[in-house]
Amino acid sequence: MNKPFNEVIRDIIVEDFSELDSSSIYGMPIIQYIVKKTVSANKGSKARSGFASLYALYVLIEDYINKDFHIKDEYIDYEGAKFSDLFTRQRELPFGSKLQNHALNNRVNGEFKKFFKLLDAVPIIRDEETNNYWINEKLLFGKINSKNINLANTIIKIIDRYIEAKQDAMNRFLISCDEMKKVSKTDSKAVYDFIIGLLAYNVDARLFEIVSYSILKHHYENIIVYWGYDREELNEENLILYKTGRTNANDGGIDFVMKPLGRFFQVTETIDFKKYFLDIDKVAKFPITFVVKTDIEIDALKKDIKEKAYEIYSVKAIVEKYVNSIEELINIPMLIEHFEECVKDGKIDSILDEIIEQSRVEFNV
Predict the structure, then answer these.
(1) CA of 178: how far to CAs of 181, 182, 188, 216, 362, in Å?
(2) Do 148 and 141 form a contact (C-beta atoms < 8 A)?
(3) Helix residue spans in 184-283 (DSSP H)
(4) Which of residues 73 and 156 earns the better pLDDT score?
(5) Cα(70)–Cα(217) distance, integer angstroms
(6) What is the phi-psi region of residue 364: left when phi exceeds 0, alpha when psi lies from -120 to 50, beta otherwise?
(7) What are the two backbone dihedrals, phi and then psi, of residue 256, each rounded to the nearest 5 degrees?
(8) How far apart are CA 259 and CA 209, in angstroms?
(9) pTM
C-alpha cells in the first residue's frame, strides 16, 4: 500500500459523508483511536497489527448493524451481545483465529482512556453479571454541519480495508521469504540481514515468535543429553524443541516445549513482572524460560523483575518462589548470538525454511 492508511481513512469518510466536513469527522475520538491502531498498515507484515483491539470494536459494531440499530433508535433497550457470540465471530475474521478475550474485557477501554484522558466515555460497555456487551453508541454519533451522523458502517469499511492491507503485506512477506530462498545459495548476506530484521523490537509478535522458535530449534538440536533409569544403560538424545501450536494460543503459558528435558518456553513482548508471574501460576510454578522481545541486558532484566516484585509482594518467600521459577531469560541479543552460531554451522538455509513453513501455517497459506 503506497498511500498512508490515515489517508485511506480520510477517503472512506469522504465517500460516506461527501457533503459534510470530513476533517471534523476524522477528528472524532473513535476514528482517531482507529487511526492509532492502524498505523502498521504501511509498515508491512512485520509491524504490530492491533487486530485484537480493532476486532473487539468490529464485532460489536457488526452486531449493532446486523440488528439495524444504526437505522432505528432502540439500542438503549438492547439486552446486549453475548460474549460467546462475539468471541466466536472475532476468531472467524482474518488473523483472528487465536485472539483472546483481553480486548473485549479491558484492553480497548484502557487504551482509549490513555489516548483520551479528558473523555469520560469508553468504547465498550460490559455487564459483568450477564457477560453481555454493547458498543458505546454515543461514540458513533456526531453532529456535523447541523446534520446527525452515525459512524457504524464507516468503521466497518475502515477495518475491512485495513484487513486487506495487512493480508497484502503478509503475502508480500511470504513472497520475500521465497525470494530469499532462491538467492540463499548465492547471497547468504541478504538472507542473514533478512532474518536479523525479523528480530527487531517493532516486529509483529507472531513473526517474532516464529523466528525465535526457528533459531532456538536449530540452536538446541546439536546439544546431546544422556538420561536413563539405570546409570549403566543411558540414552543418548539430541535436544528437540517443539512448537505447541499457533502464536497467541491459549496454551497456559507454553509456546515451546523441549524434549527430553521437559523445559517450557514462553515468548513475550512485555517486561511487566506480573505477566511473568501469571504465566508461572498457569503451570503451577513449573520453571519457565521466557523469550523476551527486548534489548535490555539479561542481568538488568532479572534485577528489574525482582525489584518490582518486591514493591508488590513484601514477603521474601513469595518473591523468591516466583523468581526461582524463571529458569532462563532469553533476549534479542542472545537470539542474535544463537543465530550467528547457527550461521557458522551452516544452518541459515534450514532456519529460513523453518520460518517459511511456520509462517505459512500461521497465516493459513
Answers:
(1) 5, 6, 14, 22, 16
(2) yes
(3) 188-197, 205-220, 273-282
(4) 156
(5) 51
(6) left
(7) -130, 150
(8) 19
(9) 0.70
